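Let's practice the habit of predicting before peeking. Look at the sequence and jot down your guess about where helices and strands might fall. Then scroll down.
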Amino acid sequence: MPISSAGTAALLGGQQYSHRAICLRSACSYVRHEAESHGAVAFDFVLADVLPPTSAEILHAFGFRVGDLRRHGLGWDSVGWTDGVWFVKVWRYRPPANLPLLEQLELGFSVPVAQQTVDGESFAVTAGGNCFGVFRFLGGRHAVDDDWHETARVLRLVHNHPAPGLPTVALVMDKWDIISDLRERLDHPWIRDRSLEVEHYLNRLEAVTDEALRHRSEPVLLHNDFGGSNLLLDDAGVVSAILDWDHACVGPREHDVRVAFLHSDPPAFLRAYGAKNLDRVHLEHALLRRATEDLTARVVEETDREGVVPCFDRWHRLDADLESALPFVAR
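Done guessing? Here is the structure:
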């Protein structure tokens, strides 16, 4: 079975969450006021040395053949190839522990389920030591900002679905994960001239993390990287599949709902989602932490320098975003 990430435990709203380091993961596919045409180049650089498994390796591990593979899909921690029938995913690190559980999801649209190896496992390992999985290839167009209403509708369906044995993971992560990593790099040339600003938001993240630990929250099924290239729509504009459940877990809904603020009209998104009684502390924590994660990933990896400025922009609009959410926040 896949090896789960180990770590410490944290208490969040009366629920126990085991630690899982996920700060160096794929950046959200949506943008608001920013262009991401440079993203593929950046991800290509991160995974430039990763090769797909050979046809012989796939046949040996899974017992069937695939056609000629072409690159299809890039992220911070995985890269994919497809022959139009199968999708082969290679993880940069370990595969997620939740792979065997995804077949239990019944959402009314497709969820990519890992094929089992001839030994009954959910992934195999190449001769070079890279973990890989094989999934049915799912076609369709990726969601864009104009699909916000459908995105919100489907997000609500995800949150209403029972979480079948998924791990409860540390949404309040150990502070060394991103805060210490970035503090140790305040003199990095990409952020050196804004080090005081970085320190300010790191202090704010520490404070809201401590506050979130004291806030009870109803746990829901979280996708944890929802929207954009992880949503496939059919010709009628209806979601047909949700991709990339690598970070799926159980926790406060605000960590998915934060995607509303990556759209052009967050209040409209929240209304379409049916948001009410959101927890302001968890929402602030989700927005602040994800922007900090994305900045830390770029600085630590020294990848995608153009993506640094949008992270600062998300920090700068944090208070405005929280104010726009007030009608949907519990009093």
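How did you do? The chain has a mean pLDDT of 84.
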